[in-house]
Amino acid sequence: MGIIVWLIVGGVVGWLASIVMRTNAQQGILLNIVVGIVGAFLAGLVVGGGSINQGITLTSFLVSLVGAIVLLAIVNLFRRGAVR
């Protein structure tokens, strides 16, 4: 059940990050999920001190969103050569 929650939250976080970065029309749901999960994981490691299974709270959701936005900016930098 945990992996399904990770996929759903990752998809939502990735989708919101793509809306913030204005790249929603350029990427599909798979890239939204990947960016959301990887960004949330990396941000959770940095902010949470290495623990990634603390549950879903507003704080963890916002940290995941920021991580996904930063990761999406880095992906856009490599894809186009400039952050939008």
SSE order and pairing:
Blueprint: H1 2-20, H2 29-48, H3 58-80
Helix pairs in contact: 1-2, 1-3, 2-3
Descriptive keywords:
single chain; 84 residues; mainly alpha; 3 helices; 74% helix; globular
Structural summary, described in words:
This protein is mainly alpha-helical. The protein has one domain (2-80). The protein has helices spanning 2-20, 29-48, 58-80. The protein is globular. 26% of the residues are buried. The model has no long low-confidence stretch (mean pLDDT 76).
In short:
The protein is an all-alpha fold. It has 3 helices and no strands. The protein has one domain (2-80).
C-alpha Rg, in Å?
A: 12 Å
Count of separate structural domains: 1
Which H/E pattern describes the elements? HHH
State mean pLDDT (0 to 100 scale).
76
Span from first to last CA? Answer: 36 Å
Shape: globular
- Enumerate the spans where pLDDT stays under 50 for 5 or more consecutive residues: none
Summarize the main sheet.
Answer: none
Structural class: mainly alpha
The share of residues in extended strands comes to under 5%
The total of helices stands at: 3
Number of beta-strand segments? 0
Specify the helix fraction band: over 70%
